[in-house]
Specification:
Keywords: Ligase. It comes from Nocardioides panzhihuensis. One of its GO terms (molecular function) is phenylacetate-CoA ligase activity. It is built from 12 helices and 22 strands. By secondary structure, it is an alpha/beta fold. The protein has 3 domains: 226 residues, 3-Layer(aba) Sandwich (Rossmann fold), CATH 3.40.50.12780; 96 residues, 3-Layer(aba) Sandwich (Rossmann fold), CATH 3.40.50; 89 residues, GMP Synthetase, Chain A, domain 3 (2-Layer Sandwich). It has a 9-stranded mixed beta sheet, sandwiched between helices. Strand 19 and strand 20 form a beta hairpin. It is globular.
Length: 444
Amino acid sequence: MTLSETSFNLKLHTFRRDSGRLYRELLRNQKIEPAALAELQRTRAIAIAEFARSQTVFYAKHFADAGIDPGRALTPDDWTRLPMLNRRRLKEHADDVTSSEATPRNSRRALTGGSTGEPLRAMHDSRVPTLALAWRMYTWWGIQPWDNLARMARWGFGRFDTLKNDIAWWPSKQRYADAGLMSPESMRRFHAELTKSQPALLEGYVVSTAAYADFLEAEGLRLPSLRAVATTAAPLDPATRDRLESVFGVPVHDEYRSAEVGWMAGECHERHGLHVFADARVIEVVDEQGRVLPPGETGDIVVTDLTNRVFPIIRYRIGDRGRLLDRQCPCGIGLPLMAQPEGRATDLLYTPTGRTLGQVTGIFSDVPEAVRQMQVHQRADHSVTFRVVEGRIPNARSHVERKIDLLRNRIDNEVPVTIEYVDSLPYTGAKLKYVISDVPRADG
């Protein structure tokens, strides 16, 4: 047993006792029978809904307005009758969503990046050691919680907080790069740090991890200690996955998380879908009218956090599109599966006659080597421009133009669709907005 493993286990039985308790519970939960797991999830879902109704101003009114009898205990049959809420409503009523249990000591701010155009001020329940969810997921990739890690994300900590983090995790090493402040100089410094710390896992936003891979390849640099790479904050398309695996030389895994809820699902080593953390979250897929869709059908993702008692998030349209999967993973983990999220629910194109086009971000999915990055911009006159960073295969442009011709035919050439080849695409806050639309929407 290494010093890092010994130290980690000692912490889990002393001042990180709550983390240890949850981590051991999560490892047990992934092995229980699906029916027992579903019952555990239903029980926890009703419990958090009852708590929110009795301990927040917002949910008491929210449920009553939907005809949920305030004098009757909720049952599992009531679940789909509970009204859903969207980001705008949650943002407008954030103060009333905050529960009577919330205090400065047990609450931690969670500010979303606003990729939907509507940043949300939420709060996490700091009494819940949610990092244990990540530790469980890491073990699926052959990574242990005490292994050295490297992360590329929003990192606003100063020197004092960084020092505290280093002390808390010693002798394990965790190195961070601020994905919003990347430059050749900062990436060169980051590589020097990782050469010393020898991380087993690199975890980061899709765009920033891809940019770092480009930098390493251009500089002829490597990270031989890596055993896995994990990405989040955007769809991991096949071309990007192949690109990252080529540069880093290790498997690349997708994880699904958000600022307001945290970790929700992640791939295992089989990568046949993402395992939903059903013991801590409820993930549903609904149509435009809010009807729950069966596995296999694509719709809006609705999330419930089963652990947050300071800022309950119940049946929340998180703004993403996706589908659940009706199969068991051969890895032996009993947690249910979902497909990779397909992008934002707002990532749609419109024609003047009212036709709606979705899933445009996957237009090149069957020729992933032809495109390294892509952004779609629809202007107010409905014209569409695809900005493309072409791949390195021969005739990449002919593949791109063939797919765009198919799209033109699909919409009967109702609006102009053009291609603009670029060397790179701009991103803010370390994220790339894949679809930009200037077309006014009826819902504002």
